Amino acid sequence: GYESVSTLGRVRLQGGASWKDLAVRGSYSYRKADDFSPGGSDPIPFSGFEKRNYSGSLAWQMSPRSTLSASFLGDDAWMVGYPVLLMDATLAQARIGSISYEQIDPSTGITQIQSRLYYNQVDHWMDDRYREVAERGVMRGMYMPMYGNTRTYGLISDLRHPIGAAVWTLTLDAHQVSQFGDMWMYSIFPGVADMYLLNMGDVEATNYATTLQVNRPIQGRAQLNASVRWDGSARRILRADMQRIFAARYGTSSTEKTYGFPSASLALTGSMRPGLRWRVALASTARLPTNVENFGHYIYNYVDGFFYTGNPTLKPERAHQLEAQLDVGGQHVAARITGYVSQLRDAIVGLPDPGLTESTRPSGSYAFRIYSQTDRALSAGFESSIAWHISDALEMAGSISYAYAHLTSLDEPMPMIPPVTGYARIIYRSDQRWIELEGRGAGPQNRVSFLADEDVTDGFFVTHLRAGGRLTPWSGGTSMTVRIGLENVFDVRYHEHLSIGNLPARGRNVVMALTYVL
């Protein structure tokens, strides 16, 4: 494959084979891109990247009703540019492995068992060695190489069994996460001593959850799905010097934190007549604070440009949500509309750090915040879509969505909420060819968060033209397919509201991809 907007080249190889009760599959991919160009402009510096990805899996059918499998995924990326951040990723590595077991046997007490043991590790090096640091607005006059890693291992298991007309599922989930992050600060000015900062001082979290779910048909054409869940988490700082920092800041002798909370959901799905289905769902859920929100130490938040300190006293965010969905379908037309309203309690937000005088960025470049919570917030929204099969060869589709969210206690909009967005496309298909014309757009977003230092975003509309098809098979089962496209046909310069630092989207882009199947 190839893309012109960043002279991106990519190749992917994958294949598999099987022998009796064994099967193996593997893949390798490589991508390299130069700096990309937004609409009507020159390339943006520090926006290129290079990466590779490789994976392998092995499956053994131990019996007609049981399978044991193992998989591994490796991912390496280097010189990944982040043009709106202070630095770039010189190297990022991920190693992900798992062993899974599945058994389906109605003769046993448990009809189906699915279990997976996994281990993931991520290492991340960031550096600003190629940036101009003498006059930048944040951390002026110093280089700041950073390193971070995450280690995760865990086990998740589903036990499924019917009792009467109902199907019961018990899910057991437990995993441990360990995180570390630090940075050096080397001044470009002589006589200024180097500095060292711990961002994540060996933070460890043990998380566990138990979920019981039942799915049962009820009177008429309705279906009931209900679940209850219990989550728990125990987290702590292992490094003594970081323990002392947080203990002194929050006036406590211990920085260990334990959480435990329930969640529940109830959904009813039914059909009033053929082609008309409905769904209503109620849920009371919670979100645990992240390790960074609990124990991060002066970590730069690229969303709003502030340096954040964690708060071990945070409570879980809670949400009570009502959702309704209606599906209408006929021989040629299908439509869906979904709406929701949600009340949030204890929403986690960033507030000025009361321990520092320069915490609101009145005029300087150094700005500090602490993770805190607001009592109430409200969000609501809808999404609707339609697909129309005009004929066997011609199809039209479209979608529109809108979201509203407000921090009630602070009386201001919630940050990172997109404006109204939508798309429309028309597709023509023959036996082995297709062509598609798509238009996608968004309205302006004027409801912005002062708290997150957001700015107003203009609306936009872009057009894409794509085509492809299967070429005549060469011989036997071999074949070749080709896909071409012209994205952002009119080279519009725009940026999404959720684009960090108002990074513009890619400009006019010629896309070509060739696939050959043996």
Note down, in words, how this protein is organized.
The protein has a 22-stranded antiparallel β-barrel. The radius of gyration is 26 Å and the shape is globular. The model has no long low-confidence stretch (mean pLDDT 92). Helices cover 3% and strands 63% of the residues. It contains 2 helices and 26 strands. A hairpin with a 4-residue loop joins strand 20 and strand 21. It is mostly beta strands and 518 residues long.
Keywords:
518 residues; mainly beta; 22-stranded antiparallel β-barrel; 2 helices; 3% helix; globular
State the helical fraction.
under 10%
What are the secondary-structure elements, in order, as H or E? EEEEEEEEEEEEHEEHEEEEEEEEEEEE
What is the general shape? globular
Strand content: over 45%
Please report the distance between the alpha carbons of the first and last residues. 18 Å
Task: Report the biggest beta sheet as strand number plus sense, adding barrel if it closes.
Answer: 22 strands, antiparallel, barrel
**CA radius of gyration:** 26 Å
> Which structural class best describes the helix and strand composition?
mainly beta
Oligomerization status of the protein chains: single chain
**Number of continuous helical runs:** 2
Low-confidence spans? none
Q: What would the average pLDDT be, to the nearest integer?
A: 92
> How many DSSP-defined strands?
26
Task: Give the arrangement of secondary structure elements.
Layout: E1 2-3, E2 8-19, E3 22-33, E4 49-63, E5 66-80, E6 88-104, E7 112-127, E8 142-143, E9 146-163, E10 166-187, E11 195-217, E12 223-237, H1 240-250, E13 257-273, E14 276-287, H2 291-295, E15 299-301, E16 306-309, E17 317-329, E18 333-352, E19 368-389, E20 394-407, E21 412-413, E22 421-429, E23 433-442, E24 460-470, E25 479-487, E26 509-517
